[in-house]
Amino acid sequence: MNDPAAEEPTEAAAPVCPRHPDRVSYVRCQRCGRPTCPECQRPAAVGIQCVDCVRESKRAAPRIRTVFGGTATTTTANGRPVVTLTIIGICVVSWLLQLVTGGAWTHALWFWPWGGAVEPWRFLTASFLHSTSPLHILFNMYALWITGQFLEPLLGRARFTVLCLLSAVGGSVGVLLLAGDPFTSDAWVTPVVGASGMVFGLFGAMLPVMRRLGRSMGQVLVLLALNGAIGFFVPNISWQAHLGGLVTGALVATAYAYAPKERRALVAWAVPVVGVAVLVGLAVFRYASVGVL
To answer: Residue 102: left (phi > 0), alpha (psi -120 to 50), or beta?
Structure first.
């Protein structure tokens, strides 16, 4: 005897999103055909695609490189100068800590030649400090933003990070090398703070980058001349840090700008290694020459 219930057609199960099995979805991805809930839907040229297919297509898409080897970005999110904004954020937070700690944060991180001999991290950390005057940090952050949003997309985030950090250290090394006689010059015991060395490194980097792009360097040269002159005519400004950062940034950017296409990856690794070795070597030589090491 036949079972009447067995002869009734079974109702098809409702389609559910693979990522969210508790959600029924009758909309399907145009690429893979799987059900896709509203949270996982992404607009496509025709219809919608699921987030997995969008991610896969991005991964498979060829990366477009700039003339300097950086990854070309077209979307607002990917094109945002993340490194520039991060450095600005660190400097702002550090400046606030300087204010609220009554100088303790500043004393722990500022640079002076004698202090750098026993606490070498000061060669870098001083670049993230500023004087208590808002004008100091405002000027440096504005200059960093203007140059960073131009250079970072061209060089790529990794190369730009190397450029900034080496320029910062190069500024402190410039102060050390040009400090004069350690037993008669006050420069050996004068604290130095500010991102000026890093900023001047970016100014210096603009020269080979603009030349490589075939653009006029007139405005950059005027900018360098004006800012360089300030260090000689305005008191309490370290022109030595400006010069050290400028030279370091120009050399780093030259290596990146003129690296042969087939050698860009090698140069990207070699520049930080060689740069650190040269800066450390100059600092050790200077300290050894005055009997510190």
So the answer is: left
State the Cα–Cα distance between residues 109 and 123, nearest whole angstrom: 9
List all residues 6 or more positions away from 79 whose beta carbon is below 8 Å from its beta carbon: 73, 153
Global confidence as pTM: 0.76
Distances in whole angstroms, Cα of residue 88 to Cα of each of 50, 93, 148, 198? 36, 9, 10, 12
- Range list of H helices, the chain: 4-7, 51-60, 76-79, 82-100, 104-109, 113-118, 122-125, 134-155, 157-177, 196-213, 218-233, 239-257, 264-289
Domains and CATH numbers, the chain: 16-52 (no CATH), 76-289 (1.20.1540.10)
The model's pLDDT over 41-61, given as tens digits with 9 standing for 90+, comes to 888 777 788 888 888 877 766
> What's 216's DSSP letter?
-
Q: What's the pLDDT tens digit per position in 155-189?
A: 999 999 999 999 999 999 999 999 988 888 888 99
